Task: structure prediction
Amino acid sequence: MPIQYFHYKGLADLRSHAAELGVDIPLVEDSEEIRSILARPVEIKSLGGKTWRIGNSFAIHPMEGCDGDLDGNPGELTARRYRRFGAGGAKLIWFEACAVVPEGRANPRQLWIHPGSANRLRELLETCRDAHRKEFGTCEDFLAVLQLTHSGRYSFEKQKVASRHPVLDLYPLVNREDLPPRETLPELASDEYLAELEDRFVQATALAREIGFDGVDLKMTHGYLLSELIGARTREGAYGGPLENRARFTLNVAEKVRRQVGDDFLLGVRLGVYDGVPYAVGSENSIGVPRDFPTPYNYGFGTDPNDPYRMDLSEPIKFIGWLRQAGVRLLNVSLGIPYANPHLGRPFDKPNEGYYETPEHPLLGVARHFSATAQIQNAYPDLAVVGTGYSWLRHFLIHAAAANIKQHRTTLVGLGRAVLAYPEIPRVALDKAELDPLRTCKTLSYCTYLMRSKKNELGQFPTGCPPFDKEGYGKIMKQARAANRPAAEKK
Ligand SMILES: Cc1cc2nc3c(=O)[nH]c(=O)nc-3n(C[C@H](O)[C@H](O)[C@H](O)COP(=O)(O)O)c2cc1C
Ligand code: SF4
Result:
């Protein structure tokens, strides 16, 4: 039986366990106060003077459903997910990772923005807005931002890396520590490729605007290409080495966007502010162990080279200052590389099958998220910052969400797995300030299992929440399990 780390009967239990672990998990108890804090609208002003209004303090994090078609168009399950998110009550929907070039897709069913997929993306956006309008009467204060990406090291067809990595080049994925390394090194993205890619991001931004999105996010997190680039201290040339060079790609894109697309289109970044080190499944037991790494460790953004277990936000904070000057108005904070150290980004009770048991109490992971976001918000009090790391807290997440906003430790609260399981959390929180504990995500990682399941005719299973959304994913989970069973067992 897996350990059940979440064992709190009430807020007092949670509070005293946080104190025992020596971490700060602020909590608001009073229902009226929770409601009024979470209902606070957020205003964002562009460099050009345009104002956007987000009608409450909830955001839905970008979450890929891996359910598009091979041409990058969204499918029926994609529409279903965004219908549920639209009706769920959050006023900021951060649409999932969408590749800007076909070779930058993480899987064959990832969304890909290009003229041929524009109509279907427009329909998807309208589906989401219609669902919101139907429930709440208006979309005036409802924002939709599209995440633009190149999957770099984790592209499914041809991996392209931003810098050589002494560990990830050999072990890009979590598996047992005694398994052999991969034999061929992934290709390093050349300066010419990156210069060309800048324009692909700009074109994708212009197309996203034409489609009707309110803004885009240049995805710089989770070990994908732009996230690796901002940490590429050992890369040579125009895009590597000093922070000024590493920031070049994003700052160039931001400048070109302002020139070609205009100042009144919302520019966001999802930034991984602490990459940490890669982990493996321990060979003695299944607890996560760090793989051997060289020190100083010059391979992770926000990661102290002399003590890479320590988050050091000095570079991320400096970089965010430059992003603001370049017109970025929305910053979503994330951590870790889900393929290499999933406990950092998605604190969990139960790992995905074949992955490691958490090497730290998940509440420490939640606290790391809250602390990172708070430090960034503190450095830039007027920046619209979206915090991550709430789902593990189950029905107590609304108490922490309200407290972080109240204490100016974040502007918006982003929900990930929590809303795959229970999409109407924002609405219920704003109505009753109380969530149904039977419906909350229990961080069981089946959504990750589906995401990593590739053995069907399209080379990818769609993902969602099988335990709490059986209607959507019960059958898909059974199919994925059958496909993943070793051939010998199937006989
Ligand atoms: C199925 C799934 C898909 C995800 N897809 C994306 C994505 O497209 N872009 C992204 O930035 N993060 C993605 N994430 C990470 C989430 O946005 C979020 O950071 C993470 O789940 C932690 O938040 P939580 O504790 O609320 O779940 C994904 C997570 C899951 C579980
Ligand atoms: S499968 Fe459902 S319960 Fe499990 S982590 Fe994902 S969203 Fe949560």
